Structure formats: C-alpha cells, structure tokens
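Practice problem: SAM-dependent methyltransferase
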Amino acid sequence: MQDSILHTEIQAFINNNINASISKLALQKNPFPNVEWKLILNQIEAKAKAKEKLPTWFQAENILFPSKISVEQTSSEATALYKSQLVSGESLIDLTGGFGVDDYYFAKKIKSVTHCEINSELSQLVQHNFSQLQVSNIKCCSGDSTTTLKNTEQKWDWIYIDPSRRNDAKGKVFMLKDCLPNVPENLDFYFEKSNAILIKTAPLLDISAGLSELKNVKNIHIIALENEVKELLWELHRDYTGAINLKTANITKNAVDTFDFVMQQEMSYPAYSLPLKYLYEPNSAIMKSGGFDAISAHYNIHKLHKHSHLYTSDTLIDFPGRIFEINAVFPYNKTEMKNQLSGKQCNITTRNFPETVENIRKKWKIKDGGTSYSFFTTDVNTNKIVVFCAKIK
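Answer key — structure tokens:
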C-alpha cells in the first residue's frame, strides 16, 4: 500500500483534491486503476482532517495517513506540545503509540523514545512518517507493548499510555479498567519499569472515578483547545502520597490560559454576591476541574450561587475565561422578559437554570447571535434572574 500511494502522480492527485467532496470523487472513475480507489480517497479525507490539527504532517511531503477516524482520535499538535513540557530525561516508552503525534513532540525533549503499536501496518506507516519528518530518535516496535515490557530488563524515565475503550464496554460509565491496556490492573508492573507514568484519557472520564482506580497521582492536567476540553493527563510518580494538584490549561491561537490549585483547596468557602459590575464565566478546563471555590478565592471574586459557577466583581480583573460587563439584571418573569428580550437578538447561556436555551428562545422568540449576551441563572437568594451583558473578552 505504502509504495503505491507514494507514487508522485498519486501524491499530486491527493494534494490537488484536498478540498474536493469525497462523495463526489467516489462516483468518479479511478484514474489510477492499479491502486484501490478507496485507499486514495482515504488519504485525501484523512489529510484534509489533518490540515488544522496536524499542520506539520499536512505540510510535509510523502506522508502516509491512517483512517480518517484515526486522525480524528489522535492528539492535536497543540496538546502534544503541552504534554512534551511535562516530561524530561533520557528515555520514554509509549505503550499505545498510534499515529505518533505525541511521540514526535516527546522526542524533542527526550533523548530516546520507543513507540509501541499493536497494529503492524500502522507501526510501519508511522516509521515511514518519522523518516519523512527527519526524526531519528524514535524506535518503532510492532506488537503488544505489555510483551515488549516483559521481555526487557530496561527501565525508562517515563511510561506514556493512551488507553482505548474496549468495544464491548457497556453503558455510559467510563472506567479505566474498561480500557486497553487495563492500567489499574498493570500499574504495579508499570512501576517496576519506570518511576513516572503519564496517562492520557478522554475528557469523558470523571476525575473522582479516575482517582478511585489510580494511585500515586501527583498532578491532573485538564487540557482544553479553544475552550473545548480535549484530554485529561494523569501524572503518576512512584511512592508519591502528597496532595493532588489540578492544572488547567485552555490553549488558544494567541495564548494559554492556566489556573492551578490543590484539590484540598475545594474545602474552602467562597464569598457570594448579587451581580456587581462584571461577570466572569470560567473556561471549560476549569469547569471540568471542579475548582469552583478555588477560583473564587484565588481571584477574590464572588459567586452568584453555589451551583451557578458564575462570578462577579466591581473591579475588572484578568480572568481565565469569558469576561462581561453587566448592563442590566432583572428577574425572570413574563413582564420583564416581554419588556427586555422578547423578539430581540441575543446570545444566551444558562447556568443552574431550569429551562434550556432552546426552550427560552422558542418561548420568548429570541433570535440567536448579535453582540448582546444574556445569562439565565440563579442568584444567591435562589431567585431566577437574567444578567444582560456586553462581552469584554
């Protein structure tokens, strides 16, 4: 497959059709009858997916891509770069190598990286790509990574694992024991091979559930990209028994907004207030972290309600999330809604509120969009209110 796809004319065809409709192309006659049409179409579709997510791979010549789904599931370069800042030392082994994006960035910080991949065809594809990208300090091993670990006396500075959910995992509850490899079951064995383990999980995993299955957790990183949580990173250190640090990062094109706190800080009691001059909505990484009281204490801002997770102050502060200037606050009732918002255009957010955005729009005939923002929420006195704002950030 590799040699045929890499033919100069086929590569040119792929690049010339990056923006083409795959469904329309599929109906056309294959201009390269010696190569399966489906393989060529897959390269076009997968490479198109990589344009924004994996610009290094997209821009390099003669790169081979796996299925479109594999590209969708792999780490982005932005999150891989973040992960690479967490590791150091001479050696790292990736037990679930996949497309190799994380290892490409680990290799910039670690002298020797071992990429394990159970799928032999994918392992060969990744090895080819690393060669094209001129990376020489990554060794690709095809086969079961657990067997690889058992058959060597070597110890690594880091073990990296991105376990995948088994297809037969039932229900919506996501537990690490339901993944391959089974990290909780193998944890003691992994610690025989390394003193430091970094585990990537999907944001679907509940933090308390993860902690119930793991041990020696030092740091939990919650990584969002453009305010969408993409992954949780669990940093485990052998024999560590101290406090657990939660580190949030929202990566945008212009900056990385971070907020860190110690898990036990959530025992503190925040101050509450009715809406003041400014309103703050934490980014999605902070929302996932559960650090609702810690952020109130750190920035010295007031919560609107215990469960609203919106904050307010009289003085404008720099804040890791959206910032608004409050123009009006009114009770949620028929009279006020008719006078203030009915029939108008407005961006709507609900927090700790009994109605959905869709229902509110339909009920009061409010159009989407525009420059005005309304938060439908509950205040400290448990009253249903609408906070009408202008966006600052």
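Discussion: The two ends are 49 Å apart (CA to CA). Students who identified this feature from the tokens alone can consider the problem solved.
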